[in-house]
Design goal:
Blueprint (H helix, E strand, L loop, with lengths): L1 E5 L36 H4 E9 L3 E8 L5 E7 L6 H14 L5 E3 L8 E3 L27 H4 L7 H16 L9 H10 L14 H10 L9
Antiparallel strand pairs: 1-4, 2-3, 3-4, 5-6
Helix pairs in contact: 4-6
């Protein structure tokens, strides 16, 4: 399953000091046997894949050149073979949502307006004295241990997610990753992650400390 997004005027290839993420599994593991771009057009007839831009728990993002237009895109390739029927249905829904960018907000109608990202589908106001939320929700790889353990949770789960996002922004791949859901959740519950060399060699100790304080299993010690 593949989705495309236009790339900005620069990519990681223009920044020689930024190291690429760990090599992903072979591309054929992430795409159908005969991928098409709609209307019966073969994917390889339309796009030429380039370098890996990032990896996730169940997907890899590759740079690609759209042959007819010369436009560069970021293409997300998802390993459909390892997904359950429910996950495939959720994936189909996600693709449909991507065709309606209601989460992209503009600060004005001017051409140079700033873009704001907004997604408050699960947002809820939480008071200091609340016993905590109990709804199990979130994206695998980003959710805090207490959610996976079905324990009441509060604002500290957002701190955990910010830690995951910060980790990804600095190295290009997630701190917790595994093709198997059970193994992935076990790593999250144990807070099992590393600052792998050479991808983190150029990252400051302050940044690592910042992430380490957020990815703490004990939510009372998380900040």
């Amino acid at each position: 399953m593949m989705g495309t997004k236009p790339l900005p005027a620069y990519t990681s290839s223009s920044s020689p000091d930024i190291l690429p993420p760990p090599p992903p599994p072979p591309l054929e593991d992430y795409s159908p046997e005969s991928p098409t771009c709609g209307y019966g057009i073969g994917f390889t007839d339309q796009y030429k894949l380039g370098e890996t831009l990032g990896t996730g728990n169940f997907s890899v993002v590759r740079e690609a050149l759209h042959k007819p237009s010369g436009q560069r895109y970021a293409i997300k390739c998802i390993k459909k073979g390892g997904l359950s029927n429910d996950e495939l249905e959720a994936l189909t829904t996600e693709v449909a949502v991507l065709k309606q960018p209601e989460n992209l907000l503009l600060t004005s109608k001017m051409d140079d307006a700033s873009i704001k990202l907004a997604d408050f589908g699960f947002a809820k106001r939480v008071d200091m004295h609340d016993e905590g939320l109990k709804t199990a929700c979130g994206t695998p790889g980003y959710v805090a241990p207490e959610i996976l353990e079905s324990r009441p949770y509060g604002k500290s789960v957002d701190i955990w997610s910010i830690g995951v996002i910060t980790y990804i922004l600095l190295c290009g791949y997630p701190p917790f990753h595994d093709d198997n859901h059970h193994a992935l959740f076990r790593k999250i519950k144990q807070g099992q992650f590393e600052f792998d060399a050479p991808y983190w060699d150029a990252i400051s100790d302050d940044a690592k400390h910042f992430i380490g304080q957020m990815l703490v299993v004990d939510n009372k010690l998380r900040y």
